[in-house]
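2024-03-11 09:14:02 INFO worker-7 job=invfold-0412 stage=load source=structure_tokens
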């Protein structure tokens, strides 16, 4: 049964490519060499591209035990200074494969209690 407008999953890619989910995982994780043939890897990549598949980063992060996310605590979101701090932090984080979550401190300016 077709799903109604949901993101394609690795199961969908596996079915479209005629391979197992394990093969999809190996190819999409770039760990296929020596385990999956070049033609199979190409078939998986083509199926993923055709379906618009993107790996679920939240699921991957849970499996790996880390998120590659930085928490930036700022005292206020209304000043141009902290907007610049966030923009710079997000740019540098992205260059290193990290994301930034912004959290306005409820205690405002000054050292945090914890």
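2024-03-11 09:14:09 INFO worker-7 stage=emit residues=114
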């Amino acid at each position: 049964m077709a799903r109604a407008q949901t993101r394609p999953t690795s199961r969908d890619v596996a079915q479209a490519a005629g391979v197992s989910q394990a093969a999809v995982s190996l190819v999409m994780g770039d760990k296929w060499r020596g385990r999956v043939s070049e033609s199979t890897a190409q078939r998986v990549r083509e199926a993923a591209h055709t379906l618009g598949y993107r790996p679920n980063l939240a699921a991957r992060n849970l499996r790996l035990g880390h998120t590659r996310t930085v928490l930036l605590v700022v005292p206020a979101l209304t000043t141009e200074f902290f907007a610049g701090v966030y923009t710079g932090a997000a740019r540098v984080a992205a260059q290193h494969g990290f994301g930034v979550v912004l959290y306005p401190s409820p205690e405002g300016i000054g050292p945090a209690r914890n």
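2024-03-11 09:14:09 INFO worker-7 stage=report msg="The beta strands are 69-74, 99-104."
2024-03-11 09:14:10 INFO worker-7 job finished
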